[in-house]
Amino acid sequence: MAFKVIKEDILSENDGVASEVRASLAQEKTFMINLISSPGAGKTSFLEVIGPKLKEEGISFVIVTGDCFTSRDAERLDALDLPVVQINTGNACHIDAQLVASALEDVDLEGMDLVIVENVGNLVCPAEFDVGEDVKIAILSTTEGDDKPIKYPLLILESALAIINKTDLLEYVDYDMDFSVENIRKINQTIKVIKTSCKTGEGIDAFLSWIKDKIKIKKIT
Amino acid sequence: MHEIKLTQNLVSILDREVASDEIGMVKVVHLEVGKLRYIVPEIMQTAFRHVPKHEKLTEAKLEIEVITGGEFTLKGIEW
Lengths: 221, 79
Ligand SMILES: Nc1nc2c(ncn2[C@@H]2O[C@H](COP(=O)(O)OP(=O)(O)O)[C@@H](O)[C@H]2O)c(=O)[nH]1
Ligand SMILES: [Mg+2]
Hints:
Number of strands of chain B: 3
Number of domains of chain B: 1
Largest interface: A-B, 25 and 26 residues
CATH class of chain A: Alpha Beta
Shape of chain B: globular
CATH topology of chain B: hypothetical protein PF0899 fold
Radius of gyration of chain A: 18 Å
CATH superfamily of chain A: P-loop containing nucleotide triphosphate hydrolases
CATH class of chain B: Alpha Beta
Bound molecules: guanosine-5'-diphosphate, magnesium ion
Oligomer: heterodimer
């Protein structure tokens, strides 16, 4: 038998396209976030809340939203007059770099401050695929159980920010916030945690100041 | 679910590698996969059997070694 040593990352093709996306965003100094959560944690709701506020602040942005079969999320965002590009992901359990690259072909990035990718609802696959973002953001919620960070450590490891959404429901669900945050920190010592509610608005200002800082830093680097 | 997409990526690397004349019918493909990838080796094997691939790969078996961490690497091929 003959043997050939190869040593190639299985995701090298995807990562190559992600690097191209990253380079074109760098040229325009556009910051990109990749929102990842389980279905129903509140990605679209969060965008419905922060979108109008970003507009008020004069931040230019576009939302790239992935949906398996429908355009419901895109319609919800469009109803608020938020700039949105829809990607149909079909059966795919994640958005990959090529899908984002194609979506951005139709977007004029000149002067764009922020690109927001709403990934497909899934805590496993999206964490693996670099789409050219500056940071991944994990959105967890109080209704899905406090053990999700330890069950899906790769996502926590890969994210710069963990949002724990639906804090307004804390009194109705058995969600041990300390346990959850402790586990998040055990997996990733540098991750920032923001607790939010899309109903009461808790934590939204904290997020806005975090994102504004990130956008500012991108502009000067 | 992501095993299918990852298998397609694997096959596109392999197709390129086996195109060379010196390589015969591949018997084993060696992979190393980190636990954090949540790869189910059996699903990966099934996906590998079914995705379209170079004819030199049609009898190949995947040898998947599970390691710690998050790497997922094609280590080499035997023929
Ligand atoms: N009580 C409460 N419900 C929320 C909150 N955020 C989202 N939801 C609800 O959770 C459901 C799923 O939200 P959606 O934004 O579609 O989740 P996505 O699948 O992650 O985009 C909807 O019924 C929302 O109204 C929140 O902070 N508090
Ligand atoms: Mg949604």
